[in-house]
Amino acid sequence: MESVSVDRELMLINGKWEESLSSEFITIENPSVRGSVLAEVPRASAEDVSKAVEAANKAFKSWKALPSREKGKLLWKIADAIEEQAEEFARTISMETGNAIRTQARGEVKSVVEIFRYFAGVASEIRGTTSPVDNNLMAYTQREPYGVVGAIVPWNAPVQLSSLKIAPAIASGNTIVLKAAEDAPLGVLKLAKVCSKYLPPGVVNVITGYGPECGEALTSHPLVKKITFTGSTAVGKIIMRKAADRIVPVSLELGGKSPQIVFPDADNDKVIEGIITAMRFARQGQSCSAGTRLYLHTSIFDSFVDKLINKLRQLKVGNPLDEESDMGSIINKKQFDKVCSYIEAGLNEDGIELLLGGMPPGEGEMTEGYYLQPTLFSCKDNNSKLAREEIFGPLLLIIPWENEEDVIEAANDSSYGLAAFVWTNDTKAALRAANKIELGWIQINRGGAQMPGLSYGGYKQSGIGREFSLEGMLDSYTQVKSIMIDFND
């Protein structure tokens, strides 16, 4: 049998492209074609992590000293370069994540460009305050970077989430070592190539490998002064415990079980489209902010469900690179099997009714990759497994409601607190709900994605800290120093 040549990508450490010290590699699968290999990336170990962290630590002093305006100019150049390669980035993201290029991957690249430009613009806004105590005593504060930031990102929107770590971290004067997800590192390495072209060696370092082998080493390294993680709540708890041992600040953007509340006056096609967007069906439901719990008022329940089913049946599931595809594939077999286990649980649980979709077919084109159809279940309350656990797949649970106070209580009845969506033309009702819902990011009559400049983050077990904004950058990547001056003779 002829051996097939596979592209090998390398890690960025101190401005150089390197293998791991063990010379071992990780195979990156194409989720839309089972068994198909896209490339190989280095399998980093603790020694590789240490090398990257030491490089970042060495680069920190001179990078911190660079004027903020100059840092901003470099970030702007990175944004321009990404925009010039937008289609190439989108194809890479689509192939490695399984996300459809038309509905998801191109939008992710656009978001990356906007993120770098936003933080380029606010880089010079890192300032303190003055506090004149009396005529002979003055106090002032200044914000300073931590030093080396250790960052870990997941696979569902890898390049966007990496930009949300890299851009604010370096704009505020830190250096960074970022571990890409082992399932989708190729787009992140492409981003690293752009960064390496414009930034001094060691400012941005990107490593690839498994969590227990290099992620754990990164969060434990004594030179890492700040940890930022996006991923599951379970792993976030582990990272937080490790950070506690060294008293290192952490930012955590974790899981979600986001509610969508539809009021009686919102039974229309625009809301249907918004519900589908908020559920992140274009990303196969693989989003921590996905609105997976849909609370429908009983007076519109049947008519709304009929319209929703008809709309979802029009979505085409298929090859992510096909311009006709609305949805692509699940990221890998492990996640595919996990989502299927939830579908099976819904089929076997009393009180839950399947409305659309279900288990994947056993033959045909859908079996070529990890493909699942949009799946809808209905149940009476929050007590089922499907209502309480994060699934991370194209599964939407629909629950009826009648009383406003009861539905808000149900929306809050979760260990998660990331996002919520409220659909109504009644401004007072919308604001009442927004004020009472215990979540960090609430949208009214909008199901779209986050925007640079507006803080995003969770309550409860959905995380600590905020991203996407100047405030998030200041709180997450700088620390405050107070200085007092006595003018008395």
Notes on the structure:
The chain has helices spanning 46-65, 68-84, 86-97, 101-122, 158-171, 186-198, 211-220, 233-246, 269-278, 301-313, 333-348, 385-388, 404-412, 427-436, 470-477, and strands spanning 11-13, 16-18, 25-29, 37-42, 130-134, 137-145, 148-152, 175-180, 204-208, 224-230, 250-253, 259-262, 293-297, 353-356, 375-378, 395-401, 416-417, 419-423, 441-444, 459-460, 463-464, 478-486. The chain has 489 residues and is an alpha/beta fold. The strands form 6 sheets. Strands 14-15-16-13-12-18-19 form a 7-stranded mixed β-sheet, with helices on both faces. α1 crosses α7, α2 (68-84) packs antiparallel against α4 and α3 (86-97) crosses α4. The radius of gyration is 23 Å and the shape is globular.
Topology readout:
Blueprint: E1 11-13, E2 16-18, E3 25-29, E4 37-42, H1 46-65, H2 68-84, H3 86-97, H4 101-122, E5 130-134, E6 137-145, E7 148-152, H5 158-171, E8 175-180, H6 186-198, E9 204-208, H7 211-220, E10 224-230, H8 233-246, E11 250-253, E12 259-262, H9 269-278, E13 293-297, H10 301-313, H11 333-348, E14 353-356, E15 375-378, H12 385-388, E16 395-401, H13 404-412, E17 416-417, E18 419-423, H14 427-436, E19 441-444, E20 459-460, E21 463-464, H15 470-477, E22 478-486
Parallel strand pairs: 7-8, 7-10, 8-9, 10-11, 12-13, 12-18, 13-16, 15-16, 18-19
Antiparallel strand pairs: 1-2, 3-4, 5-6, 6-22, 11-21, 14-15, 17-20
